[in-house]
């Protein structure tokens, strides 16, 4: 009879261990995959967070340095969006491989630069040594708006081949700004 009691407990322990293992795997998957967030969702989350912080600190002042830091970051983000014309609408990141000194992540990014839409997909290889950290962009794929793709297809092909994201963002910003000026000018004459 004692063996039956022990067997029941052992079965329950195995079932709980299996459940813990499944939940751990599910948690790790959720941690690796980030979901798409629109700018509206980010703003809603920020406002919700601010309300929670104010609720937590009723009777106490909200730390002024944190509040000032948040306002400063919002101002900087707004300034950069106005300066560059870039507005990112979604981003996702998934870790494909992680070893001691090497990490491979897959990124998907979409947004607008003035009136031009774009989507990027690339892998980022990060290697760490004692002296430095190096990053390399691989498997870059750029999708532009169908109407504009014909005007910049050679440029996009070259960027994809070389995997140079900085050049892409700099050039797209300049091109999109002048494209917007041309569009407004032609609208004026219609």
UniProtKB/TrEMBL annotation:
Coiled coil (residue ranges): 6-40
Top-level taxon of origin: Eukaryota
GO cellular component: chromosome, centromeric region; nucleus
GO BP: CENP-A containing chromatin assembly
Keywords annotated in UniProt: Coiled coil
Zinc found in the keyword field: no
Annotated InterPro entries: CENP-P
Protein name: CENPP protein
